[in-house]
Amino acid sequence: MGFYQDHDLGNRIDLAYGSDSVAVTAGGAGDAVQVTSQSFDRFAVNEPLSMVAAIRYKAVLAAAATLSLAYVVEHSDDNATFVTLTAATGSTGASAVVATGPAGGGTVRGIVQIPLDLAGAKEYVRLKFTPDLSAANTDTAEISALFVLGGQRILPV
């Protein structure tokens, strides 16, 4: 592979829409509520063999308060009956702390990357994630997902 091919990432990946942005309030709306992304059709994007599910977050956290995420990636033959392809831990996903409020509290931003081999995946793939804020009634977060797809049989155009 030449220098040009190594550095032309935009021509070697595809992107697929994951989810709308969801608002989460500690102890309230969206807190500990599972979000299901849109599914994408692997066959419609040249059958990628790998992906990164990227979960973007912006959280306003009190000092030492946390934002945790659990996730499950699922796949399906018919876009209706989904089964687990991978999860954080176990078939329903285990929550893991992804952000902690700084001293005095403040805004924390980041991206959780979930790399996945799609070689054995079915036609449709989706993500389910569950945000969980540790503080009661004060902390907030805005979270959304995006899929980065690579390893297609035919490169994107």
Structural class: mainly beta
Oligomer: single chain
Shape assignment: elongated
Integer average pLDDT: 89
Uncertain ranges: none
Q: How much helicity do the residues have?
A: under 10%
> Tell me about the biggest sheet?
6 strands, antiparallel
Strands, count: 11
Distance between termini?
19 Å
Q: What is the ordering of alpha helices and beta strands?
A: HEEEEEEEEEEE
State which percent range the strand residues make up: over 45%
Count of alpha and pi helical runs = 1
What Rg is obtained from the alpha carbons, in whole angstroms?
A: 17 Å
Overview of the molecule:
The protein is mainly β and 157 residues long. It has one helix spanning 3-6, and strands at 13-17, 22-25, 35-36, 40-41, 50-61, 66-76, 83-87, 96-100, 106-117, 124-133, 140-150. The strands form 2 sheets. Strands 3, 4, 6, 7, 8 and 10 form a 6-stranded antiparallel β-sheet that branches. Strands 1, 2, 5, 9 and 11 form a 5-stranded antiparallel β-sheet that branches. A hairpin with a 6-residue loop joins strand 6 and strand 7 (83-87). The longest helix has 4 residues, at 3-6. The two termini are 19 Å apart. The mean pLDDT is 89.
Task: Name its key features.
about 160 residues; mainly beta; six-stranded antiparallel beta sheet; five-stranded antiparallel beta sheet; 1 helix; elongated
Q: Which secondary structure elements does this structure contain, and how are they paired or packed?
A:
Elements: H1 3-6, E1 13-17, E2 22-25, E3 35-36, E4 40-41, E5 50-61, E6 66-76, E7 83-87, E8 96-100, E9 106-117, E10 124-133, E11 140-150
Antiparallel strand pairs: 1-11, 2-11, 3-10, 4-10, 5-9, 5-11, 6-7, 6-8, 6-10
